[in-house]
Amino acid sequence: MSNSKKYTLAIVDDHLLFASSLEKLINTFPEFQVLYKARHGLELQTEIKNNGTLPDLILLDINMPVMNGFETVAWLTENHPKIKVLALSVEDNEGIILKMIRGGAKGYFLKDIHPDDLKFALVEVMDKGYYYSERVTSTMVNALQPGAKEPMVKLRENELTFLQLACSEMTYKEIADVMNLSPKTIDGYRQELFNKLGIKNRVGLVIYALKNHLIEL
Amino acid sequence: MSNSKKYTLAIVDDHLLFASSLEKLINTFPEFQVLYKARHGLELQTEIKNNGTLPDLILLDINMPVMNGFETVAWLTENHPKIKVLALSVEDNEGIILKMIRGGAKGYFLKDIHPDDLKFALVEVMDKGYYYSERVTSTMVNALQPGAKEPMVKLRENELTFLQLACSEMTYKEIADVMNLSPKTIDGYRQELFNKLGIKNRVGLVIYALKNHLIEL
DNA sequence: TTGGCCTACAGGATTTTTCCTGTTTTTTGA
DNA sequence: TCAAAAAACAGGAAAAATCCTGTAGGCCAA
What we know:
- Two copies of one chain form a homodimer.
- Chain A has 217 residues and is α/β, with parallel strands linked by helices.
- Chain A has two domains: 7-144, Response regulator (Rossmann fold, 3-Layer(aba) Sandwich), CATH 3.40.50; 157-211, Arc Repressor Mutant, subunit A (Orthogonal Bundle).
- Chain A contains ten helices and five strands, in the order E-H-E-H-E-H-E-H-E-H-H-H-H-H-H.
- In chain A, strands 2-1-3-4-5 form a five-stranded parallel sheet, sandwiched between helices.
- In chain A, helix 7 crosses helix 9.
- The longest helix of chain A has 15 residues, at 183-197.
- Chain A binds chain B through residues 14-18, 20-22, 24-25, 28, 90, 111-115, 118, 166-169, 171, 199-204, 206-207, 210-211, 217, and chain B through 14-18, 20-22, 24-25, 28, 90, 111-115, 118, 166-169, 171, 199-204, 206-207, 210-211, 217.
- Chain A binds a DNA duplex (30 and 30 nucleotides) through residues 156, 158, 171-173, 181-185, 187-188, 190-191, 194, 200-202.
């Protein structure tokens, strides 16, 4: 690892207290220095445009207002592929991990990580280009197992819209009106989702949507 | 404020990275020093018992495994009433704020607070005994308005149990079996809850339970 | 003791959800 | 351009959810 110059990084997290605290912590690592912080992807974009220098590394929260982690990592991969992105989340969810890695993140870890491990992860990412914990590795292996199963459920645009509307107090008929479709079509979506997701009733839909962050409370 | 001696404090939060970072931040405040950290209420209890000295102040997260913020503040108020407790949460929810304050917390703030404001809050709490932000104050005023309304919906034991079971894929008949009651009684609970909570169907129940932390995902 | 109140429970009707199968329309790929 | 695949839609029926009103039994207070 280079000792000549500190690696610079940016922190993107809407929890100001966490971001500021983390900045303090990271600045105690001799190899790293926080360049700037942002509350969400959009703020990061303007920060990058205004501030002449790019960070070597970005610590990216996933749950954020305005522009979340998924959108942000997509934008970064598109516009600044050289910047390493480490995703940071409170949630240990396979779907989310895969989504971020597919989006271009070079690593993923939970907010309950030990500071020493964080430091190790930062060093790894700069040295080797990536850092994957055991948890993330096993998730990826599972996802790539061809024989086993394809747990990745793909929802069509309309199915997603229906699912989100089903998480309200609307009846299916009302949903059909909103979506400008026949109630029978809506019933088709419902049936299809029940099969795909392995659930039995509308409550199952709500639970699924919540667990997979397809809706917000 | 006393300059002779630093105030000591403990941090209780299951997110190790956040807790450690916050420790670093707070230790830069000349008036304060972090005595120890714990991942949840239970760990705090053993820490307090083992470690001879009590902290002056505890920063307490609400969402934690094993023993959450509500249980912890209740225990602290019961066993160590002299310790000031500041609740710390990601969620801006009136019900939660009131629950913590009723439990004995001397203040409440969100994790997106600015570090300077945190410092101010810490100082306030030690000097004046409490710190309430505008947000918290307005919440309390609302809650105490006698004429306006009583938004605090009280759920009976059975109603709560039913509500929680209703947030699953069980049918009402199955719920009746589990609770050893007639399906008609369950229907009565349902009707009563719909009226009390102003909702129209079972999805409304799920949403309500989630928003009020009556169930976990 | 009696009347009021509360909880559990019922009857019975209506609406909504859920299920199964089949048809028409649209889109897509060779 | 034509056939196959996908999407939208329908009929019909059973199951579950929702709604409304009413009753029986326990408890408590005047």
